Amino acid sequence: MLAISGQQLRGWQRKGFIPPDDAFSFSDLIALRALQKLRESRIPSKQIGRALVSLKQKLSDVEWPLSELKIVSNGRSIAVQLAGQKMEAITGQMLFDFDTAEIAAVRAFPQSAKAHGGKHQKLADEKQAEMWFQRGLELEESGAPPTEALEAYKKAVELNSSAAGALVNLGTIHYHLHKFKEAVEYYQKAIEVDPRYPLAHFNMGNLRDEQGHIAQALEHYETALKLNPDYADAHYNVALLCEQTGDFLKATKHWKAYLKVDGSSSWASIARRQLEKLRKITVVSKGNGPA
Fold it and tell me: Phi and psi of 24, rounded to 5°?
């Protein structure tokens, strides 16, 4: 029906884009058609994978985003239609739909009209901020120097101080540059403008872990999990930290939670290995106990 080869189907199944079955339902056909459209828009498989993982983390009741959600693409990024609005799939940032003529008209308001058109100006600024945010994502995807993406995200924040996605990405770039002080500031700003943004707390947890602040790292990871109980990466990192601190019971709990959410990924084998190691430790401990 869709002229998709068996090899392509198996490749998408291995990546976890579609269920690993031999038979396909109508909803699977919807997912396959969505994949076709994304590939026709030249969206890389790696970016599709990141978007699907992010959507499952942000929308805990969604198991197969491609068949359960309306996925759209502008040829550079992936978005999803939710309650009449668009949300950028990877960052969770809401997108605004304005055509170019409308933006130009708003920007061309006379000064006297702007005094009465604050709402329109705000919307135009938010649209411009979104454009700079998308530009930053493009630059990161293309492997451009970090300074170029930094400038794009900074312009997004200048136009919209509540652009949590841009603030998080600014923090992450500084984190990778080992500029931890600046990274903390950007992550903290993202948390302040959107306290219910799991990614901001997760990234702050990564940074605190890198700095050796285990208690603070756990606090942020656990906040991310309160906001999204199916946040696989947060379960994974909490399990590792609990092993380091000797809290094997809690580590076991989070390894199991991770496997429940993301049991088919390449990291799942590590989680299973760690669970088996903890089981052996527990058995040895019990065997050495009092008779």
Answer: -125, 135
Burial 162-192 (b: 16+ CB within 10 A, else e): ebbbbbbbbbbbbbeeeeeeebbebbebbbe
Task: Answer whether residue 139 is part of any domain.
Answer: no
Number of neighbours of residue 89 by Cβ within 10 angstroms: 25
Question: Each residue of 233-254: pLDDT tens digit?
Answer: 999 999 999 999 999 999 999 9
DSSP element (H, E) containing 36: helix 26-40
Where among 90, 123, 140 does a domain terminate? 90
Comparing CA positions, the residue from 60, 129, 45 lying closest to residue 93 is 129
Look-up of token digits 């390894």 = 255
Q: What SS3 class is residue 192? A: helix
Say if strands 94-95 and 85-88 run parallel, antiparallel, or are unpaired. Answer: antiparallel
Nearest Cα neighbor of 141 from 255, 249, 46 is 46
Domain boundary among 90, 121, 145: 90
What is the arrangement of strands in the sheet containing 85-88, beginning at the earlier edge strand? 70-73, 78-82, 85-88, 94-95
Q: Are 137 and 120 in contact (CB under 8 A)?
A: no
Determine if the pTM surpasses 0.85.
no
User: pLDDT, tens digit, for every residue of 193-249?
Assistant: 999 999 999 999 999 999 999 999 999 999 999 999 988 899 999 999 999 999 999
Parent domain of 236: 216-291
80 DSSP β-pair partners: 71, 87
Cβ neighbors of 286 (< 8 A, separation 6 or more) are none
